[in-house]
Fold each of these.
Amino acid sequence: MKNEKNNEITLFLNGSEQRFCVETDETLLHVLRKRAGLTGAKKGCDLGECGACTVILDGRAVNSCCVFAVQADGKHVETIEGIGTAEHPHPLQQAFVNAGAIQCGFCTPGMIMAAKALLDRNPRPSREEIRQALSGNLCRCTGYERIEQAVMMAVEIISGYAER
Amino acid sequence: MNEHQFENVNIGIPRLESLSKALGQAKYTDDLRLPNMAYAALVRSPYSCARVLSIDLTEAEKIPGYLGCLLPEDVPRQYFNCSGNPPSPLLIHDELVLTREPKVLGDRIACVAAETEEMARAAADAVQVEYEVLTPYLDVRSALREEAKAIQPHISEDNVIQYRDVSQGDRGAGESASDFIVEDCFSTPPMQHVTIEPTSCLCDFSDGEHLTVYSTSQTVFQERRLIAEILGLREADVRFSKPVVGGGFGARQQLHAQHIASLMSKKLHRPVNLSYTREEDLYSVVRHASEVKLRIGASRDGRLQLFDVEYYLNAGPYTTHTPTVVAAAARKLQYNVPNYFFQGYSVYTNHITGGAFRGYGNTQISFAREILMDRLADKLGMDPVELRLINHVQVGECFPCASIPVSSNGIEDCVRRCQAIQAEIDTQFPLVDNEEVRQAWGISFSCHGSGPSSKEGLSSAIVMLNDDATVQLLVGSSDIGQGSETMESQIAAECLGIPLSSVRITAADTLLTPYDTGTFGSSQTFICGNAITRACDDLKAKILAQLRVIFPEGKVEERANRYVVQENGQTTELDLAQAARKIMYDPKGGVMIGAGTYKAAACPNPFSVCFVKAEYYKKLNAIRLLDIIEVVDVGTPINRLTVAGQLEGGIAQGVGYALYERMEINPRSRRTLSSDLLHYRIPQMDDMPQTYVDMVDSHDPYGPLGAKSVGELATVPVAPAIVNAVRRTSGQEINALPLCDRFVILPSRRKEG
């Protein structure tokens, strides 16, 4: 194995500064799941094809299985655990629940993070923009209809906040 | 005008566990950690048919963190069948834990373990295996050739695992009564389940006596039985506990690698995680590829006279489910026909092993049937909907060669609802037919069962009453993402007259919950649901009996979930909480536990009608799906939101099946091309047409609160309806899937605005 050398990196992980010793070829997903104990980001393919590991890196949705941890050094990483709690879920989290957009739930964290990255940049997306933004996230259970509805519901809630 | 009034069912409510999933807190198998856990990885055959000449561990042993290896001679050598069905002579034993004679791509040769997952993979890759490569038979035809070698010589000389003949009537009479006979051969490809969660297990057999398995499981009790048999344990010493599971669709209705991971755990005296890569998952199991030769005959008035089918399933090299899949297909004809002939063949090949997949044989036969019914309608000059309706089996009648009469049937309402939605769509977007593009609708009917059609469904439930009138519900059935735990809790709440928030469910843990046959055959609502209604009735009867013990002089009755005690001229009314407290803390009291079991005596058929609007670009030979409507009769929908979700998800799987999904093996290299999700494409969000789903008012007399099943039904009619639409737009006859072989597939949906 070629990655004997350890690297120390700093992540601003869900708002808190954290240091990790990582291997050169270690992925951000691996650091989140195995070192930080955050198992919300899922490993569905480890090849950047299913989107279940989506997190937000400095404002952009990324497949964390395709980002080396060293590339994330010094950056802000948002994961599903950091955007809401049971008492105060993020509007997207609540909308996914209410719309029935969750079945097995394995794609859900990635789906919600991809949607959040979209809404952070474009708070009033069209349905087409939603479908395009989430097309990198595979779901086998729902047929996507209710996921699209959930994002539209969250758009309404969030724009309601903005107007107040 | 539904006379059945409910509070907790026939409503749409979010799943009980969905917030924990949305928050990222739900724990799936690979999220679990045990102290001192090690990781295992499999050494798999890269060839579809080969013989192992030597295995060299030298390089693997040098990998840092390497812990050990299991070879074929280190593990039990008896044959087993990995299917998660209850024991049956159809489940022929022909699979080994590890083999030196790989018969399929990905066959298990050896297992290595290391301190981390990455080290285990590196060690598995470093194991040097020398093979003698042999010629595989990849399709049914080549495996059935006279000169073909036997793939499993101890089972079958001619590669036919089993032949099944199901028939009634007389072929000659059917032919002579038919004014028109249509016939053709149809083929469908092997489709993979692509559960987004890859297959995974965590096995702790550290002490070599008691085994605990956490795994992606649909059938925990069958898997416990199988692994106990393989490892020589008693079932009471094996615990299967199902964490949250990320989809199943049939792929987890079998043992995967729990046996070898358990053996590795025993060897290392450490818990062992064995999780598949996406590539391993893709070639672990598929829906059987099929070849279907079908003839349908009808008299001039449109009445079916003859249905004659030869049905071949490509089993791969291990029997697993195949003969039961064939048997299930034999009894899914929802049209009356006096002369019915079904000849089913389960055939060994070296293609990827076929297993259970949503539809279980129904998908393949319905594909051929519904396409040919459309051609028959054209020959007869009849409307394809009306042709199906006049032949449809009615309540009290049986499907051909089936023994259980249809107990409820809302197919006509399904059709009318589909037609109403169709009219709305066509008003907004009138059908186009010009130089460039032609649009048309295609339809299909389908049915399924509620539970295994062999009547082997068996389930049980326990309801324990707490002193604050909350209840603990224990069931053995697995929620694999379809929402059964919420549905089961709703049934308990409805039967006990308590709010849903007062029910806490524990499911699918062989240590804690009572027996259930398993999550397959669309059983959960009907079979487990009936066990729950019985457990609730038992609980209510026990409460009443105990109150009568406490008030020996009084008259005790239950009225609308309240307990009325008349004693010494006084009337006292107790609600459930008051009754529970009285019972538990009275000197003559007790603990109230209701139990119920249900052995499937019936198997009510749910029905579905699917309409598809498609367009065809003449110059491009390209197709686009625009709208898909699916309306179903599922009896009482317990949770309308869940049923709608099952339908939409079933439609998406049908779209993938029809358009582009296929596990491909390159005939030259004999390796799979479908090794990742770029080369095995499932529908993405942007690929899906507009979908419309609905359920008609219906109530089945045998269903719990009137309910039938939905899970498998949802996906069965979709592919033939798509083909029938494409056939009408393109004017081309279609006999095979996927359609991307014949047409350019355009992204679905109209542009907005």
Note: Chain A touches chain B through 57 residues (CB under 8 Å).
Amino acid sequence: MGRQVDLTLLQKLVQINWLLIVLITMIACVGFAMLYSAANGNIDPWASRQMYRYGAGLGLMLLIALIDIRAWLRHAYLIYGAALLLLVAVEVMGVVGMGARRWVDLGVIQLQPSEVMKIALVLALARFYHGMPMEEIGRIRWLLVPAALILVPVALVMRQPDLGTAILLMATATAILLLAGVRLWKFAVALGAVLLAIPLAWRFMLHGYQKDRVLTYLNPERDPLGAGYHIMQSKIALGSGGVFGKGFMQGTQSHLAFLPERQTDFIFTMLAEEFGLVGCIGLLSLYILVIAYGYAIAIRSRSQFGRLLATGVITTFFLYLFINMAMVMGLIPVVGVPLPLVSYGGTSMISLLIGFGLLLSVYVHRDVVIPRRPS
Amino acid sequence: MRIPGIERDGSRHKTFSRRLALLGGGKLTLAAILMGRMYYLQVLESDQYQMLAEENRISMRLLAPPRGLVLDRFGRELASNRQNYRVVLIAEQTNGVADTLDRLAHIVPISPHQRRRVLREVKRKRPFVPIKVAENLTWEQFARINVLLPDLPGVQPDVGEGRHYPVGVETAHIVGYVSSVSEADLTGDPLLELPGFRIGKNGIEKVYDESLRGKAGNSRVEVNAYGREIRELARQDGQPGDDVVLTIDAGLQETISRRLNDESAAAVVMDIHQGDILAMVSAPSYDPNAFNLGMSTKAWRALVQHPRKPLINKAIAGQYPPGSTFKMLVALAAMEAGIAGPGHEVFCNGVTKLGKSKFHCWRHRYGGHGMMNMKQAIAQSCDIYFYDLARRIGVDRIGAMARRFGLGEALGIELVGEQDGLVPSKDWKQAVTGVPWQLGETLITGIGQAYLLATPLQLAVMTARLANGGMAVKPKLSRHRTPRERGDGSADTATDDGAGDTTGNRSLASDVGAPPIGISAAHLRVITEAMTEVVNGPRGTARKYKLDKDMEIQMAGKTGTAQVRRITKAERKAGGKLGKGTPWKERDHALFTAFAPVDKPRYATAVVVEHGGSGTYAAKLTKDIMTAVLRADPLSRSAVDMTSRGHNSGYGGSHKGGGGGDDTSNRGRKT
């Protein structure tokens, strides 16, 4: 063992990948600027609060980064269990808002358990496959445990109903399974099963508004003032931005309220309108850099847990931004997924920064070798 | 030394790395798709989306131009634009619409009907759109609302432009009125679709609607997704409507209206040379302002069902048998045909026979007129004489003469609803009824009955042509129109008068040399002298109504009494006159046509009183009317100088305001 494995707190702080933090902060700053514009040149009500949250999240991220990765491994199932409990609590006593039951009131804070589950599921799956020898992975019965780990929370989230998060959970979990070494043909089988299930889901599981969104996606002009109105206006805003955009705070679509939810789900559209193709590519490049860093961190980790955890977090991050951008550009149906680190919203900001905290923890503890079955 | 676990981890790591490359590739592909989409939307399709964004953002609002005025010949306003005080309500600024209406009801009366309309509109419209609660408030009400405004959140006093008819009742039939645009009025002019826009529905307002209306201006405003206006980007003021100047003397019109009072009657005064209609009264009349203010169904029904038909302009749409006023034309026809000269004599014993039928003279019960020559026959209105003339010349030659004097066909006055009247002929009767013409009908045509019908306007034109030496003068109501913005006196092609001549007695280009109708001057003189005798002669039928001595002017005329129904034998035995007890509806129409002064005629009049009993009653009215005409003498006073804008300088400033425009256009910016 070349390097010292157990580091002091100061050593850990030095080890933290500060460049990644700079990148994240740059993205967050793009968010602050857009929120400032969305409020017609006011720091209130959005930009200021987003800054506080980012500050708090940053502290939390550093704290998590310093916690020994083995502690995360040890408590992975515990965290997962807690998240699952919260999801059940939402089901039982959740607060209904915007037509869906997603929040649970814990007295002090209001929590969105589905956000917690995004991290908890990654932790649980990483732990599961960390302890799984390569030869065992192929066995069907060892697929049943992760399947349960995935499908139970997915089903609960679907019931809220929150299709976006359910898809996100499924996709992240699939990526982890893939990286862990589950045979490719099994994914083909699963894909086939999903395709078969779609008509059934359409008939029995999807809610009216969800079906509406899919139909709207397939034909946005179907109902220009109803469900399709948002996506039409978003495309108009994006397209009218052109190469260089209309200028900061000059977006007509955004500022004249043609663009819905410009501070949350459609904030990318606003950026595209005001800064054009140049701004879009710029932000996308920042995101790709962050993802590349995540990959590098994953590859350098000496534990399977660290690798899976890092890629799980970074995949969730990627899926966020992909789904959001594809949605506002009319590539996929409207699903309520925020643009990571940019959209206004406390829960997603905090949960993303917690994820990055875990990623940093993987980086700080990259040389820690963890036995398959921790003693 | 190798730990087996690490070795196994190595194989896991290899798998992981391979799969991570796969996953990374997938992600890159997706990122590339995103970029491709960006390129497609923001570069390839950008122009189209920019256009759509502009369409979203920019909204065109029409601005209604001020409507042109209608003026009388001296520049007095007959139709003008008046500020209309009203109160509107903006739902989102109130603390409850119903509550606000309750409080507002203490200041201005709000009917349950109005209240329902407001509540209905509140539901239908967006909360920032102003909704009209009441309009045409008095200044006092308006002021009280302004004072109490702090207690009435969401209530806004507002000044719009409304049409006003200062003279009103007396000129209603000429000026007409404006009212809301109906579905059928839509011609594609976007102005007509403006909420609250009014369109001419009758009279001059209708005939000259397009030039009075002006051209719409527009304002390009930036709006947000809810249609609220953010700011005005550009504004183009419309062109105000042109004024219309009438030939009418409003003062004379009022005097005559007062004189006709409650009668169901019509009176026309015209310039015999130029054809200017100086007054055209149809009684009873109505208040055109009521149409603008919005009339209740009950009031409307009362107007429509009124037995004396106030909504009808009887001067052009009322058709009456001309009766004895027609006799001049029969005499002229006889002279022009060379059948009978002024010396032609007929003995009147009160009755003449044709086959088994008897035709009576109105003096039948006194034993007739005795020996009559042509002038005497006209002056005393002997029926027997004209039975004789008619029989000699035949109906078709009488008809031809009548047409030359403007009867039987609409004269093309600038109003709606003018009737043709009727001049019968043998062919006409055969074609319409299928029965051949009877000689007896020729006889009664000779005294202006049978099928003959004429409007009071036609009778006035007929008299004018008799008095002006046989010139085919045509009646006209509007002297000329002027474009609004014209400060200097330069000749403008838009006017249809001779350039430069701005005095009252100027001749209009279209009148210069109204063509003669080809009647011998000597024959005409016989007629005008006979008409002078009617009023001024010792035995004239209207001798009681000669003009007062101090006027030093004489008028000439002709009475006419048109039967509404046949006189029964019993009645004729009882005296041949309809008794006092005859129902109004069955009494004869009274007619009188006149011109003055006799030595140098200038004015012609025609008065018809429905069921007025006898032509002498119309003569009595004409005496007063002609006296008023000669006293006012509108033709000797200089009319409004159309090239100076003095008469309406008081409102010149309002042009810039864009008028009533779209209600929301101004208010949106304030909120």
Note: Residues 1-7, 483-511, 643-671 of chain B have pLDDT under 50 and may be disordered.
